[in-house]
Structure formats: C-alpha cells, structure tokens
Amino acid sequence: SRVATAMRSLLVAAAAVAGSGVGASFIGSGVCLHRTARFSALLIHRDVTRQGTLCLLERDGLLQEARRRLSRAQKKLDKAEQRASECEEQQAKLLASSDASLDELEALPPCDTLRQDVEEKATYLKDVNELVRGLEKTPTESSAQFAELTVLATKLGIDDKPPLRPPPPPKKPKGPRPKPRLPYRVFTSEDGAEIRVGKTAADNDLLSLEPEHRDGNDWWMHAAGCPGSHVVIRADTLSQPNVLPSETKIDAAVLAANYSRAVLNGKVGVTLCRARQVKKPPGAKAGLVQLQGNVEVIHVNWKREKQRLERLQQQINRSS
C-alpha cells in the first residue's frame, strides 16, 4: 500500500544517513530528516493527506522540475560568464593603456564580484546536474539513493512541482470605454439643429478649423469685437443646409454672446459666416482667426432673447 511504501522509504532514508548526525522527527503534519553537519530541517516526506496517507516526493515530478532548473541554471551561468568576461577584458585593456584614467577604471563594475557570481552559479549547475543524473538512474522512490537525492533536492530548493506562480492581476471591469474629450459643448436649437460651442481658446481652433469637428458648409458665429467661444451650427442637421432658420440663428447667437466677454445689455452684435470662410493667420495665438468673404453681423436684443439661455443650458450636461 501507499502507507507501507512511505514507511519503508522513511526507514531506508533513515538508514542511509545513519551515522551522519541525522535523525527523524515529526514536524507539524510532515516527516522530516535533520542533518546537523551539513543540512538542516530538510523535508523529505512533505505532508499528510486528509486520508492520513504519508506522501512522498514523487520521483517523476522531481526529475521534471530538476531538468527545468538545470536548463535555467545553464542560461544564467552563460549570461554571468559573458558579463564577467567582458568586464575582465575591458579592465585588462584599461590597465594596459597608458591613456586610461582612474575614472574609467572606477566606472567598471566589480570584476571580482562578477567572477565570484560565475563560480557560485557553476557550483549550483553542477549540483543540479548531479541531481538530474541521479534521478535518471533511480527508477523507484523506495531506495536509499532516492532518499539521499531528496536531501540534495531540498538543499537546492527543488521540489517535485514548479514554484507557484503569483496570481494574475485582477481584470479590469468591463464596460463602455470613456468617450474622448470633445473640444466643444453641444446644444440643440428650437428647430432641432446641433450647435457646437468651443470650450477654450485652443478648443476654438479645433472646432473652427479641424474637419473632424466641422464641415466647410457649416455656419459659424462669434461675438463681435470681443473674445469669446466659437460657435458652429452643423449644416447637416438643418432641414435645408443652405438656409439658416431664424430660431436656430437666434439660439446660436445667444450662446455666442453668453460665452463671450460681451456686455450683455441692450443689443449684442454677433458675427455670422460659413465655416469655410474661417482661416488661421500664421503665428496667430490660440483662438484668433481671420474671416474671409462676406460676413454678416446680426444683433441680438439681449433683454428679449436671454430667456432662451435657460432652455439651452439645461442641455449642457450632455456634453460637459
């Protein structure tokens, strides 16, 4: 049975290391061998299952993991040897050169430390190779040789299973991606047309000049004679792109006046043209544009029309 095999293996392992300062003892739920001369607290029998069966390190799993460690150890040794050799070669060149400076020598990594690292990795590789060869020659788990190899594996930190990988990071919650920031606020006129109002001076340039945000056939507005937001009325949202309805015109003019430094008293002038007439002078600061061709100036009776603002600003959360 599995229990009998485990107990026989434990006795064989104890006999194999008898006389070397090794004793058997129970630690927690596992059975361990202790060797005071060279090793300490070396776990051979890993744990006790729920059914009470004593579980040995598995030979096949241990061999597979030892081979994996052997491959990794060889790669690490090769890299360490390359680093040490390059350092020693550079050091020899500097020492042989009459032009070498002390700063150049001090800038080198410590070659002795790199060479010591090579020696340590070579020793580890040799021990892992010894473990692999021994396991390949040991087909069963119930021999004294396997018990000794288990001690060597424990010394090297090799188990019959690969080390547990850290858990993957939590996945980001799925959901709609945040919408890209728009350089304008969006309003809808009384007639159902879309009106875009720039947020900042730089945003005004994007809104008025970039095809991504406006079409040349769109209508364009700005408070006359003072700084303010650029306003674009999308022509493709009008029933007739070349005809600007009165309600839409006044709604857009009220927005242009409100988002400006105009004095909101009496009549406020607002410039009106097509978006294709808006150009950016070379070197002009953000938000400054030049209008070409026929330009109309409409006047908004602010006292009479400002009531439109309350209706329009109720829509602001849609695009802010």
Automatic annotation (TrEMBL):
<dbReference type="GO" id="GO:1990116">
    <property type="term" value="P:ribosome-associated ubiquitin-dependent protein catabolic process"/>
</dbReference>
<feature type="coiled-coil region">
    <location>
        <begin position="63"/>
        <end position="97"/>
    </location>
</feature>
<protein>
    <recommendedName>
        <fullName>NFACT RNA-binding domain-containing protein</fullName>
    </recommendedName>
</protein>
<dbReference type="GO" id="GO:0043023">
    <property type="term" value="F:ribosomal large subunit binding"/>
</dbReference>
<dbReference type="GO" id="GO:1990112">
    <property type="term" value="C:RQC complex"/>
</dbReference>
<keyword id="KW-0175">Coiled coil</keyword>
<feature type="region of interest" description="Disordered">
    <location>
        <begin position="157"/>
        <end position="183"/>
    </location>
</feature>
<dbReference type="GO" id="GO:0000049">
    <property type="term" value="F:tRNA binding"/>
</dbReference>
<feature type="compositionally biased region" description="Basic residues">
    <location>
        <begin position="171"/>
        <end position="182"/>
    </location>
</feature>
<dbReference type="GO" id="GO:0072344">
    <property type="term" value="P:rescue of stalled ribosome"/>
</dbReference>
<dbReference type="InterPro" id="IPR051608">
    <property type="entry name" value="RQC_Subunit_NEMF"/>
</dbReference>
